[in-house]
Write a structure and sequence with these properties.
By secondary structure, this protein is α/β, with parallel strands linked by helices. Helices cover 42% and strands 16% of the residues. The protein has an 8-stranded mixed β-sheet with strand order 3-4-2-1-5-7-8-6, with helices on both faces. The structure holds glutamic acid.
């Protein structure tokens, strides 16, 4: 893998929250410190974050995610504010500016909006701000929705020609079988190509709090690697591990790029 100059990191609800549904403040603060430090080292960094709906559910004092779409949209409105307030606070502790980008799939499909989006990213880099991206859950309807931030992060990484996309997960990477069920499951360190067999291996189901699961990570990896962006799926519980990646070491599962980005 080439040295990383432009990096997209995706963090999901299960990494950002405890089983109680409340925010894991320590992890969030560590992640912000690491990404601000990467920025200080000269990298262009983008954070793709989930958590709007999850944090909104907590903020509104609801016992679970609303079942209906308007309910989830309202929860996202409330949660996205809270999420950005926390990111601004944690990044702000290191003097790091951030900018919020809320997007839907259609923004990547329309050439004019796509160009506007690219320009917004480039200007944020120019101004020294870290773009913090989420799906615009409050307006995203079924036809225009990514539905999961793994796919969104792949679209962002492709759009800005990132040198790597890191998808933080609640497990160490891709395993040969489900490690919760099979004690013989081993971590697959490198994937040359996302094959249909591999997709079948990953099945469906995400965790209770997120919407992803390994299958969406594989789809994201397929999309990004086809566009020349290597993807690393790794455990998000220790954000400092990202230093090892930047220092050129191997972490998690690396999905190799199909072609070098030009
Ligand atoms: N955009 C959703 C949120 O912020 C999450 C999507 C996902 O978990 O992948 O709540």
């Amino acid at each position: 893998m080439n040295p990383i100059q432009r990096l997209v990191v995706k963090v999901g609800t299960s990494t950002l929250t405890y089983a109680t549904g409340k925010t894991n403040l320590r992890r969030m603060s560590q992640l912000c410190a690491v990404l601000a430090d990467f920025h200080n080292a000269g990298l262009d960094v983008v954070l793709v974050t989930s958590g709007a709906i999850g944090v909104g559910v907590g903020r509104l004092g609801l016992s679970e995610k609303p079942q209906d779409i308007p309910g989830r949209q309202a929860a996202a409105c409330v949660g996205q504010c809270e999420l950005m307030f926390m990111y601004d606070k944690f990044f702000g502790e290191y003097g790091q500016k951030i900018g919020q980008l809320l997007v839907t799939k259609s923004d990547f499909e329309d050439p004019v909006r796509c160009e506007n989006l690219t320009n917004a990213f480039e200007m944020l880099f120019h101004f020294g701000a870290i773009p913090v991206v989420n799906e615009n859950d409050s307006v995203a309807t079924e036809e225009i929705v990514f539905g999961d931030n793994d796919s969104l992060s792949a679209a962002v990484a492709t759009l800005i020609h990132a040198d790597a996309l890191v998808i933080l997960s609640d497990i160490d990477g891709l395993f040969s079988a489900d490690p919760q069920k099979d004690p013989d499951a081993v971590l697959i360190p490198v994937v040359e190509t996302v094959t249909p067999e591999l997709e079948a291996l990953c099945g469906g189901a995400g965790s209770a709090r997120g919407t992803g699961g390994m299958v969406t990570k594989l789809h994201a990896a397929k999309h990004a690697t086809a566009a020349g962006v290597p993807v690393i799926v790794t455990n998000g519980s220790h954000p400092q591990d990202l230093y090892r990646l930047i220092d050129g070491h191997h972490i998690g599962t690396l999905f190799k790029a199909m072609q070098e980005d030009v």
